Amino acid sequence: MKRFFLLSVLVSGMGYAQEPPKPYGVLPSKAQLNWNETEMYCIVHFGVDTYTDKEWGFGDEDPALVNPAHFDALQIVGAARAGGFKGVVIVAKHHDGLCLWPTKTTEHNISKSPWKEGKGDMIKEYQLACNKLGMRLGLYCSPWDRNNPQYGSSAYVQTYRAQLKELCTQYGPLFMSWHDGANGGDGYYGGAREIRKIDRTVYYGWDTTWGIVRTLQPMAAIFGDVGPDVRWVGNEEGHAGLTCWATYTPLAPDTGNKPSNGYSKYWEATEGTRNGEYWMPAECDVPLRPGWFYHASQDDQVKTPYQLLDLYYQSVGRGGSLDLGISPDREGRLHPQDVTSLEAFGSLLQQIFAVNLAKGARFTASNTRGNNPKKYGPGFLTDNDRYSYWASDDAVITPQLVVDLGKPKTFNVIRLRENIKLGQRISSFTIEVLKGGTWRQIGAGTSIGANRLIRLQQNVTASQVRLRITGSGACIALSDFGLYKEPPHLVQPSIGRDKTGIVSIRTAAPVASIHYTLDGREPGLASPVYTGPFPFVDGGVVKARSFEEGQKASEVVTRELGLSKSGWRVMGEVATGDGQGRRESAIDEDEGAVWSTLSKDTAAGVKFPQDISIDMGKVQSIRAFTYLPRQDKQTEGIADRYIFYTSEDGASWQKAAEGEFANIRSNPLEQVVRPDHPVSARYFKFSILHVVAGNGVTVAEVGVRIH
Ligand code: FUL
């Protein structure tokens, strides 16, 4: 009797200790788990902009423009797959309103294009390609529609919902529904050509609109600037914060004193919120080229495999996802340069993560839940299952783990993952190696979540590695411990030019030689050797590459430079804001110094146009004007509508180009405006007609290209 009693106490006691840890904080839904497992996907932009060379269509484009003679969804999706991406999000309708599927909701759709004699359905072709290649499909349908005459009224919201219904029912299971944040403003709107402002927080009736996706595609994670399932990371550069929580409590648009990014704070979304109110992990979106749509002028600005790898560490490696923009050309295929870069990136990833050097190691944990290694032991850390895990007892929130590799091994990447089905629990950790009898720290971090990669600056060789959890909201549930070796590579050089037009090419560490070209060709060992700074006053394309002994080469770096501003002068009286932003800053070749007319008086209005006129000293044949917006992550004063004028005498001015800088708030790249014909002039004027935010204008640089 007594014995039985004892046994039952023991069994029930063990039973209690072996209960899985209680979930901590908010938890991911099934759709969010599925999204997290996807990790990397490509967003595909193709449409009228591909043919008009723009980033945002106005909505008045003729669908007949779209005629990709060799449209090949298999080639596009196949290239993404070769890059290691597991899905694609297809832009089914961008802001210009043209639907790439034969929708019943508007005439403005692909059936009005000559492609496949009006019988084509691009979304169907992508779906078939995804099925064939084992890729996941997601769709983007822009809420903002610059074509629809009813945009701004409730009738349009009904149309938008009907479009979502079609997309959610005709193309099989979707892993994602993507709702971008750019909204309202000027457009064609059926010929009205006017500005239509909406309050995007209420206009679309999001609960009902997203409800459609929820009901018809329950496994689709819904992306929006502020969720509901996946949040925008706050930049289009593809990186999350070094600390990045999957949980998030969005603050009101105008609180806090960190830089404003319109609706969510840059840093806020980039880092998320520890113990936040919602499970809303970050998507890091970034185009493979500078723009989201294909532009032939950007063919030599395709991100290189190592640039993509950096972004991988900064997105997927911080618990978010990498959403890489790819853009088929006018023929309907990806450019060979893009395909090559994706492939090489894919093999790099495979190479790095093929072998977990910690597999087979002896793990000694300072604590294992219920003292039951079969259920909760560190043996689960290398089984490649995101949800099997090593757990500690409820009372132990800072356990340690010693990993005995058996013999010295060399690595430079560490991977940690939590079983996020139980929430984001761990708040900080350190990694150490045993050197000469003492533990030395080689890495440390805060958030882990679905995935955390620590990339070390140098290789580390050790046979004993220690992970110390130094903070956690509750007992831990760690699912993965990995050690990997990234192969060495020669880092690209960097190209700079000073105010007087002198180019210098530098490398972070000494290399055997740097070779460069000025004619657009790939630099090889036969190209000129860089021996020191050289004048490059007229500008053009500089490409450079470093070489090691044994001829191992770095990736090529390309820089397109405008006409040197040496001898230029700002003409006449140009306004400046209170205390900041000298006018000369606009032509000083220093992107950190900005001409600004912003006022600290928040009630102050801004009068347009605001102009800056430049005397270049002599007549030039201008092929393009350039505007570099401020690069400090703030948006105040960034121009989004402009006119460029030229003059031969500095007194009478002719309009050379006019338009909008589309998407400049989210993607503040150097803008290049090409007039229809080269214009000969000594003077030019940059006239700003509208800004994305703020009570004045800001200009980091303005310039011209003569090539
Ligand atoms: C943004 C859009 O305005 C851009 O054009 C692009 O589609 C990007 C992915 O999302 O909100």
What does this structure look like?
- It is a single chain.
- With 707 residues, the protein is an alpha+beta fold.
- It has four domains: 30-353, TIM Barrel (Alpha-Beta Barrel), CATH 3.20.20.80; 362-484, Jelly Rolls; 494-561, Immunoglobulin-like (Sandwich); 569-705, Jelly Rolls (Sandwich), CATH 2.60.120.260.
- Helices cover 17% and strands 31% of the residues.
- It is built from eleven helices and 37 strands.
- Strands 1-2-3-4-7-8-13-14 form an eight-stranded parallel β-barrel, surrounded by four helices. Strands 15, 16, 17, 18, 19, 20 and 21 form a seven-stranded antiparallel β-sheet that branches. The protein has a five-stranded antiparallel β-sheet with strand order 28-30-35-32-33, with no helix packed on it.
- A hairpin with a 6-residue loop joins strand 5 (185-187) and strand 6.
- Helix 4 packs across helix 5 (122-133) and helix 4 packs parallel to helix 10 (336-353).
- The longest helix is centred in the middle third of the chain and has 18 residues, at 336-353.
- It starts with a helix and ends with a strand.
- Beta-L-fucopyranose is lined by residues 43, 55-56, 180-182, 285, 292, 663, 666.
Q: Just give the CATH class of the largest domain.
A: Alpha Beta
The CATH H-level homologous superfamily of the largest domain? Glycosidases
Helix content: 10-25%
Poorly predicted spans: 1-13, 253-265
Small molecules bound: beta-L-fucopyranose
Shape: globular
Count helical runs: 11
By CATH, the topology of the largest domain is TIM Barrel
Total domain units: 4
Structural class: alpha+beta
Oligomeric state of the chains in view = single chain
User: Which range does the strand content fall in?
Assistant: 25-35%
Calculate Rg over CA atoms: 28 Å
Number of strands: 37
Beginning-to-end CA distance, first to last residue: 97 Å
Please state the average pLDDT score: 93
CATH architecture designation of the largest domain: Alpha-Beta Barrel
Major β-sheet, in short? 8 strands, parallel, barrel
Strand order of the largest sheet: 1-2-3-4-7-8-13-14
